[in-house]
Amino acid sequence: NTCGQTAALIRLFLKSSMSPRLLVTVAVLPLLLATVPARAQEAATLDEVIVTASRFETPRSAIAATVEILDAEAISQQTALAASAVDTVAALAPSFSPTRQKLSGFGETLRGRSPLYLVDGVPQSTPLRDDSRDGYTIDPFFIDRVEVIFGSNAIQGIGATGGVVNYVTARKPSEGEGLTGRVMAQLTADAGVLGDSLGSKLAAIGGQDFGTFDLMLGAAFETRGAYYDAEGRRIGFDGAQGEVQDSQALSLFARGGWDLGEERRLEGWINRFDLEGDGDYVTVAGNRATGIPTTAVRGAAPGEQPSNAVTSAALSYTDRNLFGGVFRAQVFAYDYQGVFGGGTFADFQDPAIAPVGTLFDQSANNSEKLGFKIDWQGPVPGLTGLRALVGIDGLRDQTYQELILTGRNWVPETAYESLSPFLQLNQSLVGDRLSLSAGVRHESARLKVDDFQTLHAYGPQTVAGGEPGFEETLFNLGAALEVAPGLLAYASFSQGFTMPDVGRVLRGINIPNQDVDTFLNVEPVVSDNTEVGIEYRGDRFELSAAAFRSEAGRGALLNRLPSGIFEVQRRATRIDGLELKGLFRATDAVTVGGSYAALDGRTASIENGPIDRDLNGANISP
C-alpha cells in the first residue's frame, strides 16, 4: 500500500504546478511514516540515558544543564533529508543556528558561540586557526547517537564556549548474535533537474562478537549533485570556503575491542573521512540591490578543489572496578587537512613570483593533534551520596596554514601544549531526587612559534618567535531537582574557554620588529554561562524551557577588512537567550513537535569599552 500511495503521489506531482520540493516531501511522507515502529511508546524517564559527553556516568536527571540526545532513529530520518550530521543537530536542537550547507560551518553557532565537536570524545576542532570545518569529519551513517550539552563548559577541554556536540559511533556487536550489520542505498535529486542534481550513497557497517574479541568495519561512499533553491535556480558556489554540493566523499570506519575479564576492556577505533569537490561549476555573482541571487553555471573551477581529509583514532582502556570506581584512560590522534578555494587575492601577491595581480594561489589548513585523557570516578568513602570525578588531560596541537601552489606558509607552524587537571563532585540528596554538582579545572597552556616571515603583502616582516603561555582556572556549579516523576528543574553556572584565532593574528603582522612573546595576546576567551531550566518527559508529552546568559569579558570578534580577510578583535560580548521545545506523540506512528530559540548578542565598540552595540552576522547567526 505504501508503494502504491507513493507512486500515485509521484504521478500527481508530475501533472501539478505545485512546488516540486513540497510535492516530493508529500510523496515520501508515507515512506517515512512506514519506518516508525507500529507500537506504543512506553513512558519516558529521565534516567534512560547516560550522557558520556559529561564524562561523569550519571543519568540525565543529575545534569544541571540543557541536554539534547538525538537517537539512531532521529539521525536516520534527518540524514535522509540533509547533507550531514550537523544538519541533523541544527534541525532538532534549539539555539543551534541554521546551517549554510557549505563545507565550512563559518557563522554556525550554538547559543551564539562555537561548539566543540567530538567523535567519541576526540576533539575535531582546530582552535589555533579556526577554519570551521569540524562539522565534516565523519559520515553520519556511523553515528549511533548525538549528545548535545548546551552552554559553555570545560569538562572536555578547549573549544566548548557554546557547548559540546559529541558524536557517539556505532556500538559493539551484541554477544551471541553472530554477524550483524546494516546497509544503506540512497538516491537524491531535485525535481525537474534530475541529471544535474543527482546524488547517491552506498554505505555498510557490520561486525561480530567473537567472545573476548569483537570487531566492526564500515565504509560509506557518497556523491552529491548541484543544489537548487525553491524557485528552481542553481545555488551559488562558495569557491573559497568550499562546498558539499557537487562533491564526492569516502568514509572508512573500524572498531575493535578486547575484553580483559568482566570489568576491564581495551578498545580502539579509527575513522578516515575524505570529501572533495568535483569542480564542475563556477559562480555567477548576484546583485543585492536588485534582489538577484548568486547562482552558478557549468564550468571548470580553477586550482585544486576544496576538500577535507581527516583521520581520527583512539585507544581506550576501562576498568570498572578499580578502588571501587571506574577508571578510564584514552590516547588519541587527529590528522587534518582542509583545502580552500583559490584566487588572485591581494594577500597572496608577490612580485618575486609573478606580476602583482596575476598570482593565483590557495591555502590549506593543517592540524595534527596528540592527546590523552585519564580519569577515575566513584564514591567518596564515608560520605553517603557523594561521587567524585578526578583526572588529567594532555594535548599537543600543531597547526599551520600553507599556500599549496607556491609552497609558502601563510600561518607559521604553531604548537599548543596544555596539561589540565580537574575535579568534579556530585552530591545526591533526597532519595537521589536532588543533585548538587561543583567542579574545577586548571588549564596550563603554552604556545610555541619559531621565527617566521609574513607574506609579501604584509611587508614582508620578519617576526621573532616565542613561547607565550597562560594559566586559567575554570569553575562550574549546578543543582538539579526531580520535582516529580519526569519533571526536572535545574540551575547552573559554568565556564568554558578557547583560544583566540591566533593564526589570523600571526599571518597578518605588518609592523616591523615584532616578536611573538610581546605582540601576541594568548589570553584565552573565557565565557561564563548562567542558566535556569525546566523539562518534563511523559508518555505523550515532552516539554522544556531554558533561559541563559553567556558573557565573555575578553571575547574574540571577527572583523572583515576591505581585502575580504578577517582580523580578530578582543571585545567584551554578552548573549541572552531563551529556548522552548515541545513534543506530542499524537498516535503510535505520528509525533508532532517544535522548538523556538531567541538570542540577543551585544558587544563593545572599542576594546575595554562598554557593551553598546549588536553583534553582527559574522559573529552570531540569526
Describe the structure in your own words.
With 622 residues, the chain is mainly β. 9% of the residues lie in helices and 48% in strands. The strands form four sheets. It has an 18-stranded antiparallel beta sheet. The chain has a five-stranded mixed beta sheet with strand order 1-4-5-2-3. Strands 11-12 form a two-stranded antiparallel ribbon. The radius of gyration is 25 Å and the shape is globular. The relative contact order is 0.12.
> What would you call the shape?
globular
Tell me the total number of β-strands. Answer: 27
Task: Give the overall average pLDDT.
Answer: 88
- Sketch the major β-sheet: 18 strands, antiparallel
Please give the alpha-carbon distance between the first and last residues. 42 Å
- Count of runs of 4 or more consecutive helical residues: 7
User: Taking Cα atoms only, what radius of gyration do you get, to the nearest Å?
Assistant: 25 Å
* Helix proportion range: under 10%
Question: What structural class do helix, strand and pairing data support?
Answer: mainly beta
Strand content: over 45%
Point out poorly predicted stretches: 1-47
Structure summarized in a few sentences:
This protein has 622 residues and is mainly beta. The protein has seven helices and 27 strands.
